[in-house]
Amino acid sequence: MPDSSHIEFVYNEIDQFPFPEDSLRKWILAIIHNEKKDAGELNFIFCDDAFVLDMNKQYLEHDTFTDIITFDYSVDFGNISGDIYISVDMVRFNAEKFQNSFLEELSRVMAHGVLHIIGYKDKSDEETEVMREKENYYLKMADYL
Fold first, then answer.
1. Other Cβ atoms closer than 10 A to 120
2. Residue 33 contacts by C-beta under 8 Å, 6 or more apart in sequence?
3. Is the CA virtual torsion 41, 18, 121, 27 positive or negative?
4. % helix / strand / coil in the chain, to the nearest 5?
């Protein structure tokens, strides 16, 4: 089956850092297909804490730092599209805090954003538990870690 997905990695006013883009794209597509969805256009925008904080204030009316903000642009339930803003500063901080590699923490956050666009929530304890189980499951599938 041909894949018409478009997954982009964008660096917003930060230096590009090395990571296995092709492997990450394949892994992200595996998550999406495993969840019985199709990928449309997904943009992962890597930025700093200040940019994500400004986005959080402007669009979500939250005055807090976060590692990720996800905007879902999907037009139908089966085909997912969106923008996923990731604070590289926060990913580095959390990698150290949780004693993970930067790439593992970045992958967790990327999976988290994809899962949000697929439809998973994390507002309640039960939703957060399901989200964490999904993240852990998909991290085990990441052959580049």
1. 16
2. 39
3. positive
4. 50, 20, 30
CA distance 101 to 94: 10
* Domains delineated in the chain: 6-141 (3.40.390.30)
Give residue-wise pLDDT tens across range 35-60.
999 999 999 999 999 999 999 898 88
Residue 83's φ and ψ, nearest 5 degrees, are: -110, 135
Indicate left, alpha or beta for 61 from its phi (over 0: left) and psi (-120 to 50: alpha). Answer: left
Amino acid at 27: W
* Cα dihedral 65/77/40/86 (nearest 10): 10
pTM listed for this prediction: 0.93
Return d(Cα 73, Cα 35) in angstroms, integer: 18
- Pick from 105, 139, 106, 120: nearest CA to 31: 139
Among the listed residues 5, 70, 79, 18, the one whose alpha carbon sits nearest the alpha carbon of residue 44: 70
Helices (H), the chain: 21-34, 49-60, 88-97, 102-118, 125-141
